[in-house]
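Attaching the record inline, Q. Sequence:
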Amino acid sequence: MRDLWIGVFEGYARACYEACTVITTLYRDNQHLQLALGAEARKLKVIANGIDVSRFQCLSCASQDERPTVALIGRVVPIKDVKTFISAAAIIRQRIATLRVLVMGPTEEDEAYFKECCQLVTELGLSDCVTFTGSVRITDLMPTIHVIVLTSLSEAQPLVLLEAGCIGLVLLGTHR
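Structure, as predicted:
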């Protein structure tokens, strides 16, 4: 079934690429696949993801006097690899007893995975420092964060890193 689905998708892509006058993507690496599926190079355009810099540049970084805080901003779903973030928090907590850990993002998309993440927090003894905030306005919490962590298994253009970098937060990420 997987091979059939891929074949159907590729057929749709070829038909669309032939009929289009402009083929737009969010980042240049997508163009390799578009070319492989028959898109003409002259039709390819990139409109890069971006952020509203003015929304973030007026925010300040957390003070060094505040409780040390690390955060993952993203949906609580397997592709964001929240479990790796929680496991890393356990290691950091061994060195920083006052650590505050935020998982900022919706939890209802994959309720089973969210439950597994909550269980991991309990198993690692992190219930007193890890908070799942659910959906929040990130500009309200960013000034209380010292480090933003991205553990996603796959990201095309992680906007959260652009946003965090805009206010000067420390950025840590993994790429697999």
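The helical segments are 2-19, 30-36, 53-57, 82-95, 111-123, 138-141, 159-166. Strands lie at 23-25, 44-46, 69-73, 100-104, 130-134, 147-150, 170-173.

More tomorrow.
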